[in-house]
């Protein structure tokens, strides 16, 4: 009976901790039927609200009962270290060891490496004392895992078993040139090995868990980090190669008639043709074609070179990506980086340092050009920001988010506005999985969102920045263009215009009757009237060169102004 009372105390303390330390007697009595609250515990505390009230009042050091409210004493300061019920002197069970065993079991089943927040999600299945010992929140849970150095290894937002299974003597560690396997070569080696395993059991599908065990027996953890560190990540990896692997009911087999299905299902014929259409591969050798600028004069020169590439195109198409950062308590969004990709080079513009680059370098002219198709993913997220803060109104975009929604609408018949948005990573997985296979992106990078506000920008980070614009232009534009049915092309164009409309509390884009430059107003000193000053559109045959004038009579994108005598009351 004493053990049942202690278990009930732990249960109610855990429940109150999750509910900010205060609940009603009625709410606590409703927990009598909860999972983990045994019949012995109900008998120990009484089976009614009155009995529960007397039970809680009998422990004034833990609970304060005020009317129908129950308050957990010292809620803000209470944790596993100072919990009186979990002190070694008053307990007969080693709850800390039980917690370690619980999470080791979960990592063995679902790991051996997981995101910490994923492992935390399994904690709800544990006993109340295990949840108390392992910490109430993510930070405390990380501290608990880090303290158990004999069982867990914590790296950034991930945790793995220290004594996880390692490969046998037939492990693959080196490539054909004698260098350690990494990146794309590691993925290719994994595909070849997994295919060979299935070929040996071609008549019998292999369960995913057993398939992952075979994978772990051949590759070390260092190599697995580039491919898959748990069965769930292996499933995602296999889906990137769905022309080879067929998955049903968590069982893996080889695809029948692979040569025919690979071209139709993966879209590999379209992707390869597009990727070889003058677009360079994105690897270390591509750094010579990537140009990063953070000042006005280099940005003007880079825009001029980009215009030369655009004017030489038969069909003027560029890949566009705008990276944003969220700042402050209110979550205000700012532009951090702008990326424009052509078939021969990619420009990265540091927009965080000054607005001058986007307004005066010619970057704005490309965004507002009707003659240049801008391939972008989810233009809606930046259209209002550009219109409101910079008076930049994008035109003629090919939005892959819209294209995906229309394709899902055509396939399933749901209204377009009810379609859930898709992330760019998932867009690659669906329409061009080869881009993930042919890049050095790891499962860890897929699960993390880079901080686009980081400075300085390294060469390795430059490859990460340009990846989206490169993939949009090299593969996804042509692949999605070919998939959109003829009867939906008009609707697609209308939806691409719709996403460029600013939100109701921001100015909408103006019709294309003025120049790419913002019209300015000035006071006519002679008659006190207002004259609208506008500029004729800049010719797109060559990159416009901004005219220089005295700094005291120049403003952003408005040209020269006339200084007037203005008096205020």
UniProtKB/TrEMBL annotation:
<dbReference type="InterPro" id="IPR012337">
    <property type="entry name" value="RNaseH-like_sf"/>
</dbReference>
<feature type="region of interest" description="Disordered">
    <location>
        <begin position="257"/>
        <end position="278"/>
    </location>
</feature>
<dbReference type="GO" id="GO:0008408">
    <property type="term" value="F:3'-5' exonuclease activity"/>
</dbReference>
<feature type="domain" description="3'-5' exonuclease">
    <location>
        <begin position="290"/>
        <end position="485"/>
    </location>
</feature>
<dbReference type="Pfam" id="PF01612">
    <property type="entry name" value="DNA_pol_A_exo1"/>
</dbReference>
<dbReference type="InterPro" id="IPR002562">
    <property type="entry name" value="3'-5'_exonuclease_dom"/>
</dbReference>
<dbReference type="InterPro" id="IPR052144">
    <property type="entry name" value="piRNA_biogenesis_EXD1"/>
</dbReference>
<dbReference type="GO" id="GO:1990923">
    <property type="term" value="C:PET complex"/>
</dbReference>
<dbReference type="Pfam" id="PF23713">
    <property type="entry name" value="WHD_Egal"/>
</dbReference>
<dbReference type="InterPro" id="IPR036397">
    <property type="entry name" value="RNaseH_sf"/>
</dbReference>
<dbReference type="GO" id="GO:0034587">
    <property type="term" value="P:piRNA processing"/>
</dbReference>
<feature type="compositionally biased region" description="Acidic residues">
    <location>
        <begin position="262"/>
        <end position="273"/>
    </location>
</feature>
<dbReference type="GO" id="GO:0003676">
    <property type="term" value="F:nucleic acid binding"/>
</dbReference>
<protein>
    <recommendedName>
        <fullName>3'-5' exonuclease domain-containing protein</fullName>
    </recommendedName>
</protein>
<dbReference type="InterPro" id="IPR056589">
    <property type="entry name" value="WH_Egal-1"/>
</dbReference>
